[in-house]
Predict the 3D structure of the following.
Amino acid sequence: MVLVFASPDDDPVAWTHALRKRIPDLEVRVFPELGDPREIDAALVWLPPPGLLASLPALRAVFSLGAGVDRLLADPTLPVEVPICRMVDPSLTRSMAEFALLHVLRYHRDLDVYEAQQQRSEWRLLLPKPAEATVVGIMGLGELGGATARLLLAHGFTVKGWSRHRKAIDGIGCFAGEAELDAFLADLSVLVCLLPLTPETRGILNGDLFARLPEGARLVNLARGGHLVEEDLLAALESGRLAHATLDVFVQEPLPKGHPFWRHPRITITPHAASYSLPESGAETVAENLRRLRDGRPLLHLVDRGRGY
Amino acid sequence: MVLVFASPDDDPVAWTHALRKRIPDLEVRVFPELGDPREIDAALVWLPPPGLLASLPALRAVFSLGAGVDRLLADPTLPVEVPICRMVDPSLTRSMAEFALLHVLRYHRDLDVYEAQQQRSEWRLLLPKPAEATVVGIMGLGELGGATARLLLAHGFTVKGWSRHRKAIDGIGCFAGEAELDAFLADLSVLVCLLPLTPETRGILNGDLFARLPEGARLVNLARGGHLVEEDLLAALESGRLAHATLDVFVQEPLPKGHPFWRHPRITITPHAASYSLPESGAETVAENLRRLRDGRPLLHLVDRGRGY
C-alpha cells in the first residue's frame, strides 16, 4: 500500500511515524515527492493543491486531515468516484470542545465586559451567575458539536442544540430544521457554530438569524468563515443585538491585514486555532481505514457528497 | 436570636429572606439600623465599619460573608473573645473553581498571545497542546484551592498543590512548606494563588518566587492583593520571567485610576469578581451555625486567630 501525504499545516514526519507504527509495510510519500503516481492507493490531505488528487490514476480513497471537507469538495478536479473519509480523532474532538468551553466560560464570566472596562480603567463588578443561568446554543450536533454539548452540560450550563436532522442527546434540548430555529434561538446567551459548511449552511449566520437572538447575545464561530455574513455581524454588533463575537475561522485565511475585524473592539480573533488532529490519535482512524481498504471492507466516516459532509 | 447584617456588597433583603426561611424566629437587623445593641447575639458581615463589632456587648459569634477573614482580623477593635466563622458556601466554591478554570484554559489555549497578536493584525497559529501538557500549580489547598485543584484535574490538566501543612488530594502532587517550594514551582505553566492572607503569606508572590518559575510562566491571583509585591510583578513581566498575569484582587480596591496595572498590555484585571456567596446556598452554613449557637453546640468553620485563617 502506498499513501501520499499533502498538507501545509501538518507534520509529515510525525504522521508517517504514527501510521507506520500501525501498518509497518505502508509506504508514505510526502508531496511533492510522488514517485510513480500509478502506485498511489490513497491520499491523506489538508488543503491539497488543486489537481493533485486528479493526477493519481489508481487512487482508491481520500482521507481528510481535518474534520471539515468543504474545501476538498470545492476542488472541481476532485475525482467523482473516489470515496472521501473525514477525520475523526479523539484529540481533535477534545480540543474543539475545550476551545468552545473556554469561550463560553469567558462570556459566562463577562470577561469581554471586564476587558472593555480595563481599557477605561473602570472598576465595576458584575455578580457571578450560576452556570445553569447561561443558555448555550450549539448549531451542529455531529462529532464535534455533540462532544461540545456534552462537555458544556457537564460543566453545568443549560445547553440546546440545533441540527438539520433531529439528534437526541441526554440532557440537551435538541431542535431541528428551519421550523424550530426560532425556538432554538429565542433565549440563548451564547451561540456556538459547529456546522459543516454546505450550500444549505453557507451564510446561515446572518442578520435575519441574529434578529431572532436575545438582545446582547454572544457569538462563537468555530466552524467555517463561509457560515458568517461578515457585514451582518458588524451591523449586529453596532446595533447591540450581539454584544461580542469570537471568530476562529474566516472566508479568507489568514485574515487579510486591514480587515475591519482585526481592530473591532468587540470581536476576538483566533487564527483557526480551535483544533487540530494529532498524529498519535488521528493515525488510528486513518490506519483502520487503510486496513479496510486493503481488505475490501467498508470504509468508516465516509463523506456523503450529496449533503456535503 | 438577633443577627446584625453589615456589608457594602451583599443584598440584605435576599440574605434576610434566606436566613428566616431556615430560622423563622430569627430577627435580622440591617446596619446601620441596630436597635438596642445589647440584644444582638451574632453578626453576619463583609468589611464591617471598624468598631461596629466592638460596640455589641452581647455578641457571641461573627460570621464572615467572604471566605477570607484577613480584613476582619485586621480590625484592631475586633473583640478578642468572640469566635469568628468563615463562609463555606458550595456556590462560592464552585464559582471560584470555575473562574480559575477559565483563566487556566485561557493560558493553556494561548488566548493572551492571540489577543496581543490581534492588536498587531498578526495571524500566527500555536498548535494546541493536550491538557496534560499544561502544569498548573495551586498555592493554598483549603476549601477553595482543593475544589479548584479537583476541577482542573477533572479537565485533564496536570495539577500540583502547595500548602503550609501537607494535604493529600488524589491525583495531585502535593507539596508543603518552604522546603518544597522550589520543587513545586520548577515546572509550572500557570501558578494560581488561593492562599489565605496571613503574616506568613503576605508578599509571597515576589521576585524571589517568580525567579524559581520557568521562563514564560503565567500568574493568576484570586486570593488577596496583599499576597503580591506589585513592583516585583512589573519587573518579572518586563524581564519575560512571567509572560502574563491575571489579577482579581488588589492591595487597594477599587484599583486606583492611574495605577500602572490598568494599562499594562500583559495584565488582565477583573474587579474582585471571582466569587461571591449567594444567599440561597450560603445561608445554609450561617443558619446551621446559628442553631449551634442557640443550642450551645460547637460552631463550624471556626477561624484560628493564631494562624490567621
User: Anything to note?
Assistant: The CA atoms of residues 4 and 33 of chain B lie 9 Å apart. The longest helix of chain B spans residues 90-108.
